[in-house]
Amino acid sequence: MFQVFLQSPPAGVLEERCFRSGVFSARSVPVFMMYNGQVRVGSGGLDMNLHFGGRDIGARTLEIVTEMKALEGALLPILHEVQAEFGYVPQEALPVIARELNLSRAEVHGVVTFYHDYRDHPTGRHVLKLCRAEACQSMGGAALEEKVKKLLGIDFHQTTLDGGVTLEPVYCLGLCSTAPAAMLDGEVHGRLDDAAIADLIAEVRL
Amino acid sequence: MTVKIYIPRDSASLAVGAEKVAKAFHTEIAARALDIEIIRNGSRGLFWLEPMIEVETADGRVAYGPVKAGDVSSLLDADITTGAAHPLCLGKTEELPFLKNQTRLTFARCGITDPVSLEDYRAHGGLNGLTKAVAMAPADIVAEVTDSGLRGRGGAGFPTGIKWKTVLDAEGDRKYIVCNADEGDSGTFADRMIMEGDPFVLIEGMTIAGIATGARKGFVYLRSEYPHAIATMTQAVDIARKAGVLGASVLGSAHAFDMEIRTGAGAYVCGEETALLNSLEGKRGIVRAKPPLPAHKGLFNCPTVINNVISLASVPVIMDKGAAFYKDFGMGRSRGTIPIQIAGNVKHGGLYETAFGLTLGEIIDTIGGGSATGRPVKAVQVGGPLGAYFPRALFDTPFDYEAFAARDGLIGHAGIVVFDDSADMLKQARFAMEFCAVESCGKCTPCRIGSTRGVETADKIAMGIEPEKNRALLTDLCNTMKFGSLCALGGFTPYPVMSAMNHFPDDFRPTPLVEAAE
Fold it and tell me: What is the CATH number of the domain that holds B281?
């Protein structure tokens, strides 16, 4: 169970609507919460990424869908855009997409849940994707995986309690000749050894 | 005179620090007020030397690598602009044995040109194939591709020309060209490299396919794990459109062709062509039963050519130099060249384009230089996560579709992952099943449920629980999956499992755990 500690909620955030939250090590009683759209308050105010409560997910989704629905096979591009906007695909977006594309909600739900990329909740401030595929295994990927999990104190698909890092597996980044490889917030890193991965993690845990 | 220095922008180079090197060069050049132009090229594919920079000299390009940001100052002190000596100097790029012994047809420009310069592309023979194609009858283009002997480089090895002919002959007012750039196989990166290093060659190949079959629209389905390739391809399509290579009048001809880049969403199974089509249509990436073939009823039920990146990127050189030129390379029914990707635990990992026919041993030991760790090579997996593990005893197998099939293996997308003797083949077999379970689309039972049962059975063998019985069960399960699955995911997962079990039986006989003393 998570416990909610709200220090002084940013304007526009309704405390009772915070649905997921965590508490953490650091000095300043950092608050991490996820609210409606996407509220992330990091320790010391780093990487503040606030989308405030007044924002209407439905309305913004409608704008995205209206702009993109003329594409042939528009659903995946729309979902990518929605995720880029909110950091995940919010439940509230699904009925809007379904209505506009003349699909059932079940169909949209089916697509969202089929693909590994679409998330139903926000990530931490950083996303670390670690390659688990064979080429990386051949270069000690499994040991590296254990090391990362230990350093972060989490397993795959989890976020550190301070909301700093989400760890995800990925099956091949195409960096098989510079294995083992990882991707941190869209930036690629290869030939990772214990020292290099420790540096990466230190960077995101600042 | 301005000196040109090439620093790769390929994501494998970026992964080992090319961006920092480029920044250091920019800073130093500005500080020293030098007359140097930095060009961000694709990679030459010698990844153990990346970041490998090149300096253009009167004598040709000279390579230095692997360069760290901290080396930049000393490189400039040594006056590398003249190709001067330095501990990191590798000599002339073209003379590096790994590069010199290759036959680069599809990757002819990769690493040489600026990927997003259409002028550079033209100056190095780009658009010659398309220029010829726009003046030809569609059936003649198809005949040329058929005669070249080009087979699908995605793994199935189906003759490309025959696929195109089926679409050309199919009735339909709308037809599509779909490029399968969902390169999910571990150990493969040829698609990524060409899209990042020479994107126009894919655009040219797809446009030729469009003209040959009467399709006016193309899609590249590019996996989301390749953000750099997505950016480069998107930029290149934009440039091509502005330059009239794409659009209502291709190179000023009566042919119309345009294309879009679409991003996948992390599902491995979408590399299977019918799942990919469903995904492009905005559906779950679930495999379709065949027939109907995509060539008859593909994207949105229209006749569709669906080809791998390398198949399409090989078409321009075939059109430019002729079917006979291309067909001259290779062996048996495997014609032309294949970009072999040497990866994993290997000393000299990289991309090696060559005619079919080299033996596995030559590729691993001579070209790849053995394992990176220096330990003996135990096994290689050829063809991605669905490819067989080959032991050293099979290293005399020539790189050829039929020769691999005869030994219960597959070339797939020509990726080779090398493992040293620390690899536990039972673990690798278990991983193959685990991967299939994670990525199964769920449509057919052998794949959806068989993969999970496979993981459990492998675990039982590892724990020493009725090993004899469980090995027989695993074999039986593999047979069911192989013959009962709808597509290659479930159908080929038995390859790595069975090959591991057959070639490395000792790993499947772990010492039973000794009960802990009370």
Answer: 3.40.50.11540
